[in-house]
Amino acid sequence: xxxxxxxxxxxxxxxxxxxxxxxxxxxxxxxxxxxxxxxxxxxxxxxxxxxxxxxxxxxxxxxxxxxxxxx
Length: 71
Description:
Blueprint: H1 5-16, H2 31-69
């Protein structure tokens, strides 16, 4: 499908981040795999953002609670 490992990693990174330059194109039989990888990248970006916001929110709430309860 892709000639060497370097090109495969490049293609995977570009597809996962949904950049999609189009300079490397898979054969027709493998294109659905690229679509699944792009969808996974979109979902993981949303999940990572949600996780980061939840973690920061928890730290801020803990810090705020400690400041309010301080004598």
